[in-house]
Amino acid sequence: MVIFQIAAFLVLILGIGWKFKIRIVEAVPMGSAILILVLYILSFFQALSFSDYLAVLGLAAGLLCTLKSPAEKRKEILAYAKNEFSGPAFLTALFMTIVVTICVNGKVVSWWDDYNFWATDVKSIYYLDGFAGKYTNAAAEFGDYPPGTQMMKWWFLHFSGEFREGLMFAGYYFLNLSFLFPFLKVMKKWNKYSLLVMAAGAAALWIFPSVAEAFWMDGCCADLTMAVVYGAFLVSVVDRQAKGRFFYYGRQALFLMVLVLCKNTGFMWVAFGLLFDYGYHCLLYRKDIRQKGISNAKGQEEGGKKNRMGLLAVTILPVLTEISWLLFCVINRRVAKLTGTAIQMATGGMGIPAYQEKMVRAFVEAFIRWPLHRGETFAWDLSPLGLYLLLLAFMFLLYKFRVLEKGQALYIGIFLAVTGMIFYGINLICHLTIFAVETQYLEPFGMVSSIERYGAPFAIGGLYLTAFYVTGGGRSHKGALLCLLFVLVTADHGGAYRAIVGYRGTVQETLNERKEIVDEEAGQFLAKAGAGQKGNALRILYLRDISDVSWVRNTYINFEAAPVSVMYGNIDAASMSGGDIARAVEDAHAGFLYVDELPKEGEKILASLTEENSFTFGCLYQVTEEKDGIRLYKKG
Predict the structure, then answer these.
(1) Does the predicted model carry a pTM greater than 0.90?
(2) Contact 135/589 with Cβ under 8 angstroms?
(3) What is the dihedral of CA 14, 15, 19, 23, to 10 degrees?
(4) Which domains does the chain have, with CATH numbers?
């Protein structure tokens, strides 16, 4: 079904491009957004594989519509398809997708947050064909993290008959690149320099995010995805070409619906995006009134009403999308530990360590002096403050060179200045409260890592919008060359190389590290639990002796065990009773229990919960609720 899925996606972007008379590379992000939302809906019903049938239906519908069209229209469609699919812009995008997929084929999970959630969750989705049900979430401590980026990872994983970490990364990179592909539309026709331009354009797109965000190069978290989607949304607001209101507002709604599904903090960037949208509409509406005069006031009023309806749709649709996910989390008791920490902080139920002054000093030093991508480049290392000021300077220069009118430059400059201050202020407050216990942020290196990661939507989104203006919306080759030069002197070239090729030197080391952390006892547990089996949605409480505590190992086990949901605990055989074990099982909402070897006293405690009054370590027991409490029945 791989061919059908890919062909259906190509037909989808072809249909969007033809319908709205845009370049096909401009249609790619809209196609990605639609695909994510369709897979998101199917995931609620654990029916992701049904997308195969939808792909076939989509292809059939596209073929039928083409055949039923008048002959002249069919010729136009075929001419458009031939021109776009054979053009340098689309071929560059296709080439990048293929090369990246091949190059990252051997990439494996190595980053801590991927083990915690981003890889573990998508592995669960892959094996369950959708979202886990109540109390069966594999990444139990990150239950309410939205699944937007996971959908595209699943789509690429679906192309293989097994879970392959390299394909997960390929899906992640394609999703990010798909929102950058519109910049390729500057390539219009073939000429003797086309191959050189294609290679330069592909390289620029790949290394562009490394100007201001480094985590995407080693992991697959959602911050970069939020950044490029946010940037694409800002452009969709200012790009008011005559393509019709449905396209103009529909594209905005799609991007915000995906943005809110990327991460818990997505709602903040949606709010910023809507603020930008409403303000820009007010600015342009008044400009139109002045230009067209009072005599056309009735037409302006009608247009204004349609614009307000469009803005209402752009506002409501992402809100409904967010509500759909929150309702699912409430019904299925999915909550992240960070959400709980935030609530405790807000209600005064958690103490804050008394080193706020040191945290503030680290923040200030990192914000002013440290490179956004944490490493040094051969030319120009931008600090968070440096890029913040540079974005404002760019707006001034765009006005001076008459790319923007005074009102536009002033509005966008004020928007970037204010939202930047708000975000960095929120970021500092979070470090003084929610992240206060994480001591890695007491050093500037750790702090700038957090600033650049969480600030990626502001930094990269602002650069995205600037690049749109500099390139004249894809019409200026000189502007494209300026953007290329800027990326070349500010990007983290070493990190970008490591992401696609250089990682190979550390793959075996990473796999060996996994084997050391996931010890022999854990390996036996994984075999008994049925790790990596489709549809195996178990919830298991895994107990070890009180002397054997390792939250690092537990996190690695969670990744290996997916889609099985594993909770952990430790037994003090000298002081605990059967009732304590029963409460631990109930608190974990576990349907099964697994216990490693314990002292003799531990066997007696556990035996009291079995019907045979005997307990075997290293075996899986099913938990059953009975009148006198829980009972354990050996499963294997």
Answers:
(1) yes
(2) yes
(3) -20
(4) 2-502 (no CATH), 518-634 (3.40.50)
